[in-house]
């Protein structure tokens, strides 16, 4: 500590001095000129005439605190955290708060431990929120069921900040014992509790907040965000690949007190990572948000919510996690400084990544022996209740459609775009296969399949015929999970995801290129959806209206129960 004090007083040279900086001060909400003296990765002093062993004269460029992503599922990038760091850090994100919810549904506590080991020694600070809802619902089979005792084994770790998004808000309101135990665990340790409560309002919202939940990333309208801000919640403004709320909530950022607003990405695919939190800041400023407030939302607000007292601002005693920007328009950093050391320059990572040994993870595709006959659906008429995909949305419609009948079995009807969809349980070899029909993919031949299927990540297959659907499922088993396109019994495109069936062990460029190839190949067999694999990945999530398919069957969220696809169609006929 003495060297920091001596440097701050000007008695000793700093390790690094950033000279002639325009400091964006998120504490005083102003921009002012000064030098920044850094020692041992900590800001020692701000003022004039500091000298250092190394000095960088930025000649009036802007210095801001680096950015923090307040809620992200790293598994959604389909890459290891080291590959994520290569892209996110040069964009100015030096700290992320992860929720390993996806891998926990597959591997349980081992999944959380795997992610923690995978982020060690990265030039990126990674903190964890423990998944609160594994499994997300009882209407699907997940790999594990994490209760409060399981979470208690990790809650006191210094890298754990609290309890991740409490999606089961009905369980909170109805005081479910398991849910209550998880909330009490986090509260007893003084840890944060993140929320997930779309459309919850009024007295029920008050009860949800009173239980200890202090944030929400599901606001999609200004009215919803304002109500939650008024009741003391932090509003996490989300801009992911599938769910995009920044534009909708821009009026809130322009007119309200933004000190309880946070920028998060939640779920982003690789192609959307090259602009990260900095892209959200840029767009906010372009829309008329004050630049200092936009930067504050991306840094100080997040740090304060999570209790990271030495992050998110430029002041003595704070970590020297800084961005040097040529202007406050593009928000593309010339330099990214992490712990007082230049980590990225002009969009390129220059910090060294650790050469860790390959991390061991068991094969997570554990499927009971399957045959082509397992994909058959015995017909009880030619009319079925099918899921209809709505473009650019996660919700689906329940519609009655006509299928073809062959040898007493209901099969896909390519003429009216009614395709068979199957969800195969892949964790416990139960043999469960949920079967139904879906409209909107427009495949003319072949099949597509994936082990990325929220939230339990069972194997999901959509196809025009049983033989290709079977071939796609077998291909996923052979590559230990991933995404495939099959035509005439042959795999024509494949992205293996051997880590929990969710992540690749290859580099960023490989994953991006393979994702592009998969989409192009799916389009070549007729698919009209821009990103069919992302759309398909949410068709098994039974908490999103209106109709979904899990390994246990076709689930109607209006009835909150499984349905017979023929029976309902006969009634509606």
Account of the 3D structure:
By secondary structure, this protein is an alpha/beta fold. Helix content is 26%, strand content 28%. It has 17 helices and 30 strands. Strands 1, 2, 3, 4, 5, 14, 15, 16 and 17 form a 9-stranded mixed beta sheet that branches. An 8-stranded parallel beta sheet has the order 6-7-8-9-10-11-12-13. A hairpin with an 8-residue loop joins β22 and β23. α3 packs across α4 and α11 runs antiparallel to α12. The longest helix is centred in the last third of the chain and has 17 residues. The radius of gyration is 25 Å and the shape is elongated. The mean pLDDT is 95.
Summarize the structure.
The protein is α/β, with parallel strands linked by helices. The chain contains 17 helices and 30 strands.
Any descriptors?
alpha/beta; elongated; 573 residues; nine-stranded mixed sheet
Secondary structure elements and their pairing?
Elements: H1 2-8, E1 14-25, E2 30-39, E3 42-47, E4 52-57, E5 62-65, E6 67-72, H2 81-88, E7 93-98, H3 101-107, H4 109-118, E8 125-130, H5 148-152, E9 160-166, H6 169-173, H7 177-188, E10 192-195, H8 202-210, E11 215-216, H9 222-230, E12 234-238, H10 246-255, E13 261-264, H11 277-286, H12 291-297, H13 300-305, E14 322-325, E15 335-338, E16 341-345, E17 348-349, E18 383-389, E19 396-402, E20 404-406, E21 409-411, E22 418-424, E23 433-439, E24 447-450, E25 459-463, H14 466-478, E26 482-487, E27 490-496, H15 508-524, H16 532-536, E28 547-550, E29 553-556, E30 561-563, H17 565-572
